[in-house]
Amino acid sequence: MSQVIQVRDVARTFTVRRKKGLLRADRLVVEAVRDLTFDVAAGEFVGYLGPNGAGKSTTIKMLTGILAPSAGRIRVAGLDPSRRRTALARRVGVVFGQRTTLWWDLPLKDSFTLVRHLYRVDRERHRARLAELCEVLDLGPFLHKPVRQLSLGQRMRGDIAAALLHDPPVLILDEPTIGLDVVTKAAVRGFLRGLNAERGTTVLLTTHDLGDIERLCRRVMLIDHGRLAFDGTVDQLMATAPEETSIEDVVTRLYTGAAPETPRA
Ligand SMILES: Nc1ncnc2c1ncn2[C@@H]1O[C@H](COP(=O)(O)OP(=O)(O)OP(=O)(O)O)[C@@H](O)[C@H]1O
């Protein structure tokens, strides 16, 4: 199987100035991510879990080229993300649940047209893909509304569509179900499941919602204090604490206790 994402011995540090009295400040080095090594193969659906401040967003920012690693090597769809951001954007769709990539004052449909120009998608291909996405994500009722008038769930569906209009083989999502009601959440999950199963899109998703993990991910990676603490299937995750019955309890144990050895071969 070909590896779509390759992360080797990656570290990312931030230097922050900490005030010490009126005139003095010292520098503090924060190791957001360290010794991070993993692969994601084509067609996998992987959940990326971790407590607040564990290093998830830093990882996603490095995978999408927003941040360069301080050490190590990253390849996504064959490219070094921080050096080839434009080329990468054509091969990878990215969705940030906490902020939109759509144009706030424009009708949703116009944002999609801009995305078509940005990625230089052929007009006919765009039309066909947009029609498909409108149907499965039910965008029709608000396609002509300005983005600022959309509800969170509508905006999220719009953002997911925008990320997929150019039909990238890889989709990276940072908390895509945050703040969504149970019905919208189920619709988004159903869409992502179909995308992975039917189109073979490789999906990596960060979430604090363990329902996303249970319902979508065959594989889970758990990061804690910047290091990969677990990498395996959901069943293997559950087996790390056989006395617990819910995934919430198992993950709480992992967040608060000693991390187990990773079971992946
Ligand atoms: N730009 C920055 N400057 C300084 N420190 C940073 C910066 N970005 C992240 N950090 C630090 O790096 C660590 C990892 O942060 P990161 O945002 O990757 O965590 P996270 O797992 O995404 O957390 P959350 O679940 O709360 O979103 C934290 O200690 C954070 O304070």
UniProtKB/TrEMBL annotation:
Q: Which GO terms describe its molecular function?
A: ATP binding; ATP hydrolysis activity
Regarding the membrane, this protein is recorded as:
Peripheral membrane protein
Highest rank taxon of the organism:
Bacteria
Q: Which InterPro entries match?
A: AAA+_ATPase, ABC_transporter-like_ATP-bd, ABC_transporter_ATP-binding, P-loop_NTPase
- Name one matching Pfam family: ABC_tran
SUPFAM superfamilies the UniProt entry points to: P-loop containing nucleoside triphosphate hydrolases
Protein name listed in UniProt? ABC-2 type transport system ATP-binding protein
The protein's organism comes out as: Sphaerisporangium krabiense
Q: What is the lineage of its organism?
A: Bacteria, Bacillati, Actinomycetota, Actinomycetes, Streptosporangiales
